[in-house]
Structures are given as C-alpha cells and as structure tokens.
Amino acid sequence: MRHIRKSFPGLVALDDVDFDLRKSEVHVLLGENGAGKSTLVKILGGAYQKDAGEITLDDRKVDIKNPRHAHQAGIAFIHQEFNLIPHLSVGENILLGREPMKIGAIIDQTAIFREAEKALRDLLVDIDVRQPIYELSVAQQQIVEVAKALSLEARILIMDEPTSALTEYEIQSLFATIRKLKQRGVGIIYISHRLDELFEIGDRVTVLRDGKYVGTRDVSSISKPELIRMMVDRPVGEHFPKQTADRGEEILRVEGVGIRGVLKDISFSVYRGEVLGIAGLMGSGRTTLARTLFGLEKPDTGKMYVKGRLCEIRSPRAAIASGIGFLTEDRKTQGLVLGLSVIANMCLPSIDKISKLGIVSQTEERRLSEKFVRDLHIKTPALTQKVIYLSGGNQQKVVLSKWLCRQADIFIFDEPTRGIDVGAKEEIYHLMNRLTANGVAILMISSEMPEVLGMSDRILVMHQGKIGAEFRAREATQEQILRCALGE
Amino acid sequence: MGAEFRISRNRQIGTLSGLLGLCGVLWILSPYFLTVSNLLNIAEQTSIIAVVAAGMTFVIITAGIDLSVGSLLAFSGVVMASSLAAGRSIPLALTIGLLVGLACGIGNGVLISIGRLPPFIATLGMMSIARGAALLFTQGRPISGFSETFRSIATTDVLRVPFPVIVMIAVYVISHLILTRTKLGRYAYAIGGNETTAYLSGVNVRLYKTAVYGLSGMCSALAAVLLTARLNSAQPIAGINYELDAIAAVVIGGTSLMGGEGTVSGTLIGALIIGVLRNGLNLLAVSSFIQQIVIGSVIVTAVLLDTFFKRRKK
Question: What is the pTM of this model?
Fold first, then answer.
C-alpha cells in the first residue's frame, strides 16, 4: 500500500501512508487511537475507499471496492467485534455464505460440519462444530473467526485487537495459532495496543501517528521506549503513574457472598483512597462479582455493607443510590448511548439530582458537562457531539464523567483501559490517582497484569469463583499472581 | 453548534421544505388551496391524527411501537360518551375518558416492561381487546347527540382558529417541552438509544417505558374528545387505521423506528404533510384509491431520502 490518503469530513485520517506485508510474517500496526490504524486496514479490507494512493498485491495493482472484493483477493478481516451469528452453529458460521449444496438448492449439513471440522483441526483446536456460537467463550469465538478466515484460503489476515478480550492463557493459544498460520505462508496484519505482545509475536512493526506514517522497524532491533517514543513523539518514562493516597475508613465490606456455581464465599473490604485490584482468568468470577456488587446478579448468600450500613443491592438503581458507579468492560454496548450527545450521556445517572418536579435544569446540565470536559480534557468539538464520533479514550472519559457527575465514591472499573491507546491510558491512570486522592475507593478488574500490579494498592486474585489470595501490589510479582489465578 | 443538533435541524428543514414545496405545487394547481379558510380546514382535519401522533413519537423514540391507538381512541371515546349520556358533567366525563386511555396505555406498558412482550405484540393484542371492548360496551351502536356545550369543543373558534387546532398546538408545545426539558424526555431517548446503558445508569426503565405508553393512550383519548365533539357521535368503529397514519406522520417527521432520536416538531410537520396531501388531492378531485398510493409513496420517499442523507453523512 503506497501513498494512501483518506479524509473524512473535517479530518484527514490518513495522509500519505505506506505499508507493506510479506509472506509468513506478522506485521504489527501500532499507534494511538485515532492514529489511522483501523482506517488503513479498513481500506485494505474494502470497508472504506481510499481517496488516493495505490494497493498492489503480488506486484499487481488492485482496486478493492468492497469486502467481498477483498475476500476474493484473499484478504480476511477479523474485527474487534466479531461477525458471528450467535444462534447458528460453529460450522454454519465458518461456512456462512459458501454453504455446500446438494441437488442444487439444499444445504448439505453434513458437508458443512465436515469442512468446518477440517478447518478447526488445521488449527489443532477442539471445538464442537455443532455447538451454537453463543455458548462459546470469547477466545473460542476468535478461533472460529480464524478458522473462517482460513477456510476462505486467506493469504492476508487482518486482526484488530485480537487479544483485548482474552486471558493470558488464551492469548498464548492464539499466538500458537498465529505461528501455525505463519508457517503456512499467511501474512498477518496485527493491530494491538499491548507492546508486550508485539515483542512476542511480531516480526516487523509500523507506527502511525495522527494519520501519518512514522516508520517501520524490525521488532528484533527496537526497544519498548523507542517504540513508545515513535508513537507519542515524547518519551514516556513511567508507565504507571501510581500515586498512593492515604487509606481512609472502610467504605465497602462484603461478607460471604456466594452465587451457586459461580461465586463462593467472597469476603473483602475496600477502603477510601485505595485501589483494590481484582485479578483472575476469564471465567474466574471477576465480572460476576462486579455485577453482584452493582445489583445485576442476586447473591444466594452473604451480606454487603456500604459505609458501615447493611445494604440490599437488588438493582443498579439501589447500587447507584448507595454511591457505587460501574464502568463496564464494554463501553459501547453498556456504558454509553452512542447516538446521544456528550451531555446526555454524562448526565444520565444524575438527571434526578439535577431536576425538580421532573424538569431538568439545563443550565446545571451544561455546567456539569462543561466542567468534566475541561477537567478530564475530553476532546470533543461540542457538548452536543454524539459520543459515537469520539475516540475510545475520550469515550471512556465520558463514562468516567457519568459517575463523577453522580458523585459516586465507590468506582468499579471493569477493564478500564481496554481498547484505549497509550496516551489516553496514562490519562485514565492519572484520573484514578485523582479519585483516590479525593477519598474514592476503586475496585479494578483487569486482565492486564502490569496494570493490576502497577495501579493497585492491594490485589485479590480470583480462581474458580473464590478469592485465592490477597497481595500487596508492591510486593507481588506477575508470576505469583498468575500461579494463584491458575490455582496452583 | 453541535453535530447532533445540526443533523436534526437539517432534517427538520428538509421535511419543512417538503411541506412548503407541496403547498406551492397545490397552490399552482388549485387557487382555492391557499386560502385562510382552507388552511384552517386542513389544520382542523389534521388535529386528531396529530394529537395521536404526538404520543406515538414518544413511544417510537423509546424504540417501541403502539398499534392500539385507534382502538383506544374508540374505546375511551365511547366510555366518555356514555358518561355524558348518563348525565355526568363534561369535566368529569372528559376525565373519565382520559383515564380510560391512560389506563389502557399503562396496560400496554406493563405488558411490555414487566411482561417483557415485544411492543408490537402487546399493542397488537390491546388493539383487538380495546376494539372489542368498545363494541361490547356500545353493543356496536354509536352514541350520539350531545349538549351544545360539549360540541363547542369542536365548533368554537378563537380569532378564526378552530379550538381543536389550539388543542393540537398545546399538545405539541407540551410534548416538545416534555421531550427536551424533563426527565421523562431524557430517559426516553436514553432507553431508545441503548436500553442496557440506561438501566446500568440507574434509569427506572420499566417505569419510564410504561409512562410513555400511558402518555400515548392519553393522547388517543384526547383525540377521541375532539373527534366525538366534531361528529357529535362516539363510534365504536372510530379510529380504524389511525395507528398507520400516526406512525407515518412520526416517520415522515424524521423519528427513527430504531429509537433514540426524533422530535415532535418533525411529527407535526409529518402530520401536516399527510393532511395537506389529502386535502389537495381532494380539491383536485383525485380518487381516494389514488390518494392511498400517493401517500404511501410519500412515506417511502421521505424515509429513503432520510437514509440516503444519513449514509452520505458517514
């Protein structure tokens, strides 16, 4: 891809960007959110049309007009949000749109399963092709996506943030799959925010910044600080700007909370001014615990005390009333109303606080949102901008503002920096520091081990619905936590 | 100015110019069209559907639909008429009528929010139930012959403006204020935009969904008052197909059936477009069969243009 250019109204997304991919290599595309990575691969995948530049495939100039075109050219795209149909089986999904037929018009179900099984066997994974997609874990769904791409005989595979929803163990199995693909000559374009992964799986890396091409390097010849400098154009010394705040009174106490089959005898306390990290593999009950605290799951046993008072939290409304704010792991489907403005989103949990007799004070709404846009440096052209047009980092800040606006004093962060670029991540960490300095307690669930270690004061490690161990963050190591999370 | 506002305003300008353009064409074709008395006549004829469509706008903004509006109009109309016939005072009879509409609307809301029925199914059921109830209540016969005072609801003019038009304007001003200034309005957009997010933000989704259907039921009952006074008769078969006209007005007005966006001012323009079309085609002596074809085409064209411009915006 040479001299690629693409603009959207009011924004040059790509300005003269070059990119090349060899056979059997993993080429990592790196850059902050809004750097143009997604736009570039979307052009390659046929979702967007380039304004200028050219794309050559095997020395032949190609013009990719739509996703089907890209498929025919052997380019497969695995999106961050999967394109699988939940109620169809694994096999039907893998062969969707290319179902083998018999007697002209009847779908040959046996052939579907046979071919799907073959595709999965190539990846050396054991997934039942008859199982419906919705029963699979995120990691398994990803494998199905890869199998689908492979059965299309793709020679170029684009993976956008493939590990963002995976646990450590699942990432390793994905990497094993990627290595197998490389051996078969597939070229892989890999977008990720996680630098560690890049060093583990990447061969070359291309950095984009603000829609411009910064450079391409061999992974073996570049260091992390160098890469970060290329990305943000400023040296980032400290990854985790953790500031320890004074630990205040106990604000939340959980005693013996259990849900049959999911959570078992969970007891812990959180104090004002601390970050309590919750680590664990996917399925260890971390998110269920958060959902229980927020009134989304009904515990069978146990008690919860908020600020010393026994609380029955049966709904999000009750949780919010007792001062809990929940930043869900999925911003777009649970944290935001994408089609509404920054103001409407920010004030949503607080509307009853700023209305009298059901009438909303518009001055107050405006004042609060202006304050948080300023305080949190949210980049938006206007308060009335729909949040769908903001970058991931800014969207996350809007979600954070929702609870700041509501003056919550227990924040539950589920994967606070998922899908957010390095610069915005740091800003989120600084905001967490500010929160704890103001006496807020933070429960942070994260799959990113360095984040848990770097930002927590204490860490609870969950394993199969139980709290396996508690660590002081400063004394813990990744190995210790991983071992505990694996139940060893 | 923000993009959100600009888009909805541009959309509105589009619909409004459609309405004005239509008026222009009709003016050329029929000189009588653009007379004050004809315009007031159109406004009066539109007022009933417009009142129903105002409630429908709320429902559709929450990503719902209310198919029962026509039947609720008939049912609340006959209940109100029978209380009048039984000699109850006008304010009391009106209150009873409005409460019947509200109660049936809340019934819809409860089926949807607590019974978790899809809005289409719940209100389809209510559509049949309320129609049956209206027929049963009257044994299928219209209730006619009301006092001069009651009929004056439809016949009074204020500075030549018919009273039903004033009611319609009031309904739209109040609806606009509810939608833009109150909790109910904010929550309606949030629920329609993303119900999960709204719930996780502490919005009492069940309550506000129910409220929206209650509001729609009330609007139907209010339309029943206007219709009954105008016809001097409450008919159990009144309001058939009104749901379709109301939905058409909402959709022409730029409210998305997917929920989360829309305005009542758009709906008013949408209702007027339908009203103007009917009136104009009548003036031009176009057969009612062709009228249906024309109105259907307008609905489809309005939404086609809408999606076209939205897609281009992306």
Answer: 0.76
